Amino acid sequence: MSRELLVVTGLTVRRAAHGEVVLPATDLRLGSGEVVAVTGASGSGKSSLLHALLDTLPTGLYRAAGTVRWRGQPVLQGRSARRWRRARCGYVGQDPALALNPLWSVERLVGEQFTGSRMDRGRQVREVLDLLGLPDELARRRGSDLSGGQAQRVALARALATQPDVLLLDEPTSALDESTRRRVVEAVRARRDGCTLLVTHDPYLVSALADRVVDLTSPLAGTTPGVRRPVAPTSTTGGFVATGRTSAAVRPADPGPADQPPDAGAGSGDRTLRLAVRGLRVTRPDGAPLVENVHLDLTSGSWIAVIGPSGSGKTSLLHAIVGRRPAGHGQLLLGGRPLPADVRQRDRDQRRAVQLVGQHPAGELNPAHRVGNAVARPLAVLHGLGRRDRTGAALRLLDAVGLAAELARRRPRALSGGQRQRVALARALAAQPDVLLLDEPTSALDPASAGTVLDLLERLRADGLAILSVTHDPAVAARADQVLHLRDHQLVAADANGSPTDTDNRMEESGAR
Amino acid sequence: MTRIRWGTVAPVAAVTVVGLALLGRRLAPHDPEQPLAVPWSAPSGRLPLGADALGRDVLSRVVAGGANLLGVALAAAAAALMIGVALGLLAGWWPTRAGRVVHWLGDLLLAVPALILALVLAVALPGAAAVVVASVLSGAPLTARVVAAQCGTVRDSGYLHAAVERGEGGPAVVVRELLPALSGLVAADAGLRLITALQLATMLAVLGFGPQPPDADWALMLSENLPGAALNPAALLAPAVLLALCALLFAAAARAAGRRLEGVA
What we know:
- The complex is a heterodimer of chains A (513) and B (265).
- Chain A is built from 17 helices and 19 strands.
- Chain A has a 6-stranded mixed beta sheet with strand order 15-16-17-12-18-19, sandwiched between helices. In chain A, strands 6-7-8-3-9 form a 5-stranded parallel beta sheet, sandwiched between helices.
- In chain A, helix 5 crosses helix 6, helix 12 crosses helix 13 and helix 12 packs parallel to helix 14.
- Chain A is globular, with a radius of gyration of 23 Å.
- Chain B has 265 residues and is mainly alpha-helical.
- Chain B has 2 domains: 99 residues, no CATH class; 124 residues, no CATH class.
- In chain B, helix 1 packs across helix 11, helix 3 packs across helix 9 and helix 7 packs antiparallel against helix 8.
- The model of chain B has no long low-confidence stretch (mean pLDDT 89).
- Classes of the chains: A alpha/beta (513), B mainly alpha (265).
- Chains A and B meet through helix 11, strand 15, helix 12 and helix 14 of A and helix 7 and helix 8 of B.
């Protein structure tokens, strides 16, 4: 048996305002060389556990009980915890893109702790980047100029660079594809001594790395139980907004069973073309090409998944379609009519028709707005619902994505990453779009919550919603009826299980569709 | 555990002090302008804070003397804040056109020292109006600059994009999304504006540009009671302590309000 390094007993976190328990008393033991994985439903206090351990709980939460011991010595809250975490700990948070200084170069971000000459630092930084599959040229880029997956790996590189005794990782692979995830696993395995605490929803990561698993699933206030729960048919689709309005935007409720095979529901009914993308060219802000010549046909009820290495331009493609960052070349057609490239030139119905759910749960919600109001807002703007109607509809939408009604009165700061992600989805659905663009829709979700969300999308799709999702999650790709791989600036068809490795050379010439 | 919740105590205390000060005269135990004792009498049972240069009750004068000063400071701070926030949002949301004009105007105003500006205005305008105008001219550019800078970081957030993409118009985005997201900053800045306005009003009054004797006024009391500081220190300390207390409470209350608005507390 290995030496025990870190012993946590009875660690409890409460909310300062109402004393509500965020993390029930939790024990942990980490031995030298051990990797312990923490799993549990979204909102079960996984991130709070890491923060409590490090004594970095955000304002509004406090450690109500419990002790942390390092090599037998207690780590007291305050100054000694600060010294301990500076000397011993490496931490990668859930939203690394927000944690990296946007003005620093990657070399400086990763190499901040290196002592020695500039040349040495550059070499060591490149070694760490290489270990995680990041190209050398990335070292010169700024923190603000990284894709979600790149930022995540740079944050990990930054933590690994100091060779910490304790490595704490909060969802370190949520934005990474299969092959990059393997590199992360190898990088963590290569740590000779010290211990690692890993918060993740990713079963692959757990099985590949974890010596032991701690499951925090105890149903807490405001969290759905960690059981996969089918949503009642009445609370879905048209039911959200069926409050006496007979607008064309309100789709009839579909009582169809949720456990149909993915393609069966989508294949039936009319397959009108919702959104056509013709020859779109997506570039980086500096003009470097990211994706060339994109052709997509999003028919009603279709689900296209785009996979591809991190930094290949998947998010930029979605931003171009929604009009956030207009593409230089190419055409968008919405229901056969041209759709302006810039969202500011689209009319209200065109804006309603295309909705995007973004990648970073922390940045998607206005910190000042209560969740219920955020979800209700599109119903007021786009569908003219009165206050009472839209409050009820917002609660039904939150319920449909698996969030309890009492969360509606909270502000985003009091939600977990997975809960925020689902609120952002509920808000996009409130607009009742024809085309839903999803950027890593399940990156912060545990398998059960992800299942709820994917089942919901499946049912909406049976009612005619077209979905384009960018994902690394095989569970999401498995639901799609077409998987496209983005590589070498081209969208190419991938085979059914989403791995393009054998076919892509062949398909490269034909382009997508 | 029983922790003192400064987040609740500070705003309540600030509002109480301002409320009492504005009620002022009606709460005073004696007529603040009537000589009641020998000049510079030390504190006694009848006059808890003693008497001033003319033998008037210091306690009554302190109770009555905040209304004017705080009223002027509040009005000046509110004007500076509202104008500053409006200009800041304008500059932050349309950084190229409106932004350039706002920054240029701000630079111009900030180039003039605030104290000199206030003195010049005090010669031309009544004291209260001078405080308001000087506070707007020197404070609003600072507020505008901070707000505009913070707009820059919020502009590119997912929720602002989402608002545009669901069809909110420009004013709705600015008022419903941008302003609430900046509310914490605005509240903190409100505290700052209030304190500087209070200092400005005090300074002009001490220099004789505000209320005139025999009015009861904290700032005026500072200059009137300075010569007798050795005989009755309470006459000098009471208004000074109250001015400092108000500044502290305003700062703490603004901080607490900011945290509340940002959803931290």
